[in-house]
Amino acid sequence: MKDIYITTPIYYVNAKPHIGHAYTTIVCDVFARINKMLGNNVKFVTGTDEHGKKIEQSAVNAGIEPQAFTDQISELFRNMLPVLNISNDDFIRTTQERHKKAVTAFWTKLYDAGYIYLGEYEGWYDIRNEAYFSDDELVDGKSPLGGDVTLMKEPCYFFRLSQFTDILLKYYDEHPDFIFPIQRKNEVVSFVKSGLKDLAVSRTTFKWGIPVPNDPKHVIYVWLDALVNYLTLNGYPENNDQNNDNYWLNVHHFVGKEIVRFHAVYWPAFLIAAGINPPKQVISHGWWLSEGEKMSKSVGNVQDPIKYCSLFGSDALRYFVLRELTFGNDGNFSLTGFINRYNSVLANAYGNLCSRVLSFITKYCNGNLSIPSNIDEDLVEFTNSVDSALNESISYIEQYSFSKYLEKIELAISYANKFVDRKEPWRIKDNQTILNNILYVLIDAIQKISKYFEPVIPIACGKVLQCITANSEGITIKALDSVLFPKIDENATFDVYE
Ligand code: MSP
User: Fold this and answer.
1) pLDDT, tens only, 397-421
2) Of 47, 267, 327, 431, which is most buried, counting CB atoms within 10 Å of its CB?
3) Distance 216 CA to ligand 1 centre (A)
4) Cβ(8)–Cβ(90) under 8 Å?
5) Is omega for the bond preceding 237 within 30 degrees of 0, making it cis?
C-alpha cells in the first residue's frame, strides 16, 4: 500500500471544455480508481488555469471583467466532472487566495536563493501559447507551437534556467522513468542538450496575473504560476516539508504531449531551485483527431463530451476513449468507431453476459447458489483462464497501456460467454449440483471481471456487483433491473458535435 498523488493539467479558461480535456481527466480518474482498487491511498486533483494575457484578451472580447469571465468558464470545467463521473479530491482555480499565497511564497523562495534577477527581454511572443521565442525558433513566421507572434520588449525578471542544463541531464539519467513514454523523453533530452537559456518569468504588458512580490508593475509568468498549482494542492506553503511528504514524493503529472517541456524542463528546474524534489513522473499522452481531421470549430467536427454522456452514458465515453487510443499515440475519434465498440463490447459482450447469467439464476435457482463442495477439472480450468487474463490486464497498467488492460478484460469476458454457450446451463435440468457449480464459477468470474472493469465503467459494474451478495451458505443473486447498455442503432443519426 502506497500513497500516490495524481494530477491533470489545469485547463485554460478561454473556451469551454472539449473532448481533449475530458480525455486527460478520464485517464487520470481511471488511473486513480485502479490505484484505489489495488489498495493505494490516492490523492487526485484537477482545476483551471486562469491568468495570463490570452485569458485577459478573451474576457475583453466577451466584454466582461476577467474575474467574472473566468468564474463562468471555470464553472463549465467544474460542472463537467460529475458528468464524466470523475472522483477528484480537490479542484483548484489559480485565482484562489490559497494559490496566490503559494505562488508568492514560491517566487520569494527562488528570489531569495538568487535564482531570479531583473533584466530586459526582447523576443517573439506567442499569445495563444503564452510563450516567448527567439528568431531562430520561429517556423514560417509563426511560433513552433503554431501561434501568431509579435515582437515585444519589456523589463523582465529572469529565472536562471541556464544553470540547469547539466543538472537536468544528470537528473534524467539517474531517473530513467521520469518522462514517459521514451519518445517524449528523447525529445526533452535533446532539447536540454542543445543548451538552456535563462527564462523570462514576469510580464509588464498586461495586469491579469499574480503580482511579483515587491514589484507589482510585473505579473508572474503564467506557466510559473500554473505549475505551482501542484504544490498549492499539496498544502504548500503551510506544508513546507514536501520532501518528506509521501504524496509529493510519488506525484504523477499527466499531460498532453504539447506541454511536456513545461513539466519536464522548467518545472523540475524551478523545484530544484526551491529545494523541492522534482515530480516522480511526467506522463504524456497523444492527441485526438476527430473523424480523421484536426478538431476545429470552423470544420464543425469538435466532439462534445457532454453530448456523448447524455446520449450514451459516461461509462460508454470513458470506455471508448481508453480503449480506442493507444496511450501516448494520437488517435481518431469517430462516432462510428464509438458505436461499434459500444455495441460489440459493452452491450453484447459484458452487458449480455451479466444480464443472462444473473436473470437465469434468479429464475431457475431462486437466486441462491451454494458453495460447491468439489469442482471438476473443467470448471477449475475456466476459473484459471479468467484469472490469468485478469492478472495479465493489471500488468499493463505500469506502462499506462489502458487499451491492453481493457483488451485482457474483454478476453476474460469472452471466456465467460463461451463457457456459458458450451455448458448450456438451460439444458441442465436434472442435476442441480452440476448446475449450481457451473453458475457458481460463472458468478465468481463475473464478480472478478466487474471489479477489474469498474475503474473504467463504474456505474455499470457497480450495478452488477450490487446484485451479488455473499452469505454463510453461498451467494444470493438479484437480476438487473434495467439493461446495462441498450444497443445503439447504427443507422440512427446523433448530434454529437459542439
Ligand atoms: N493551462 C495549460 C496547462 C497548465 S498545467 C500546469 C494548458 N491548458 S489547456 O486548456 O490547453 O489544456 C491542455 C490539455 O488538454 C493538454 O495537455 C491535453 O491534456 C488536453 N488536450 C487539449 N486538446 C487535446 C486533444 N485534441 N486531444 C487530447 N488532449 C488534448 O495547456
Assistant:
1) 999 999 999 999 999 999 999 999 9
2) 47
3) 29
4) no
5) yes
Helices and strands per DSSP (H, E), number in the chain: 19, 19
Q: Is 20 in the pocket of ligand 1 (CB under 6 A)?
A: yes
For residue 216, the enclosing domain spans 3-285
83 and 11 inside one domain: yes
Q: Please indicate, yes or no, if residue 394 is contained in any of the structural domains.
A: yes
Regarding the beta carbon of 9 and ligand 1, being less than 6 Å apart is answered yes
- 124 and 202 both lie in a single domain: yes
Q: Which of 24, 55, 227 to mutate to test the pocket of ligand 1 (most atoms within 8 A of CB)?
A: 24
| pLDDT above 80 for 429 | no
Determine whether the shortest distance from the Cβ of 255 to ligand 1 is under 6 A: yes
Contacting residues for 405 by C-beta, under 8 A, at least 6 apart: 322, 393, 394, 396, 397
Residue 34 and residue 21: Cα distance in Å, rounded? 20
Quote the CA–CA distance of 320 and 340 in Å, as a whole number. 10
Q: Does residue 465 belong to any structural domain of this protein?
A: yes
248 with 377, same domain: the answer is: no
Nearest CA to ligand 1 atom 8: 11
Tell the residue number behind the cell numbers 473566468, with chain if given: 70
Residue 65 in any domain: the answer is: yes
Q: CATH code at 455? A: 1.10.730.10
Same domain assignment for residues 273 and 348? no
Q: Please tell me the total count of domains within the chain.
A: 2
Q: For the segment 286-318, what is each residue's pLDDT rounded down to a tens digit? A: 999 998 888 888 888 899 999 999 999 999 999
Of 120, 150, 117, residue with least CA distance to 133: 150
Question: Are residues 468 and 399 located together in one domain of the fold?
Answer: yes
Distance 244 CA to ligand 1 centre (A): 30
Give the Å distance between the CA of 470 and the centre of ligand 1.
44
Dist CA 455 CA 462 (whole Å): 10
Whether 352 and 269 share a structural domain: no
Ligand 1 centroid to Cα of residue 204, in Å, is 26
Same domain, yes or no: 356 and 280: no
User: Are both 378 and 262 inside the same structural domain?
Assistant: no
User: Ligand 1: does its nearest atom lie under 6 Å from the Cβ of 303?
Assistant: no
Q: Is 74 in the pocket of ligand 1 (CB under 6 A)?
A: no
| Ligand 1 near 288 CB (within 6 A) | yes
Q: Which residues contact 101 (CB under 8 A, 6 or more apart)?
A: 237
Query: What pLDDT, in 10s, does the model give residues 313-331?
Result: 999 999 999 999 999 999 9
Q: What are the pLDDT digits (tens) for 175-221?
A: 999 999 999 999 999 999 999 999 999 999 899 999 999 999 999 99
CB of 295 shorter than 6 A to ligand 1: yes
> Residue 95 has which C-alpha cell?
485565482
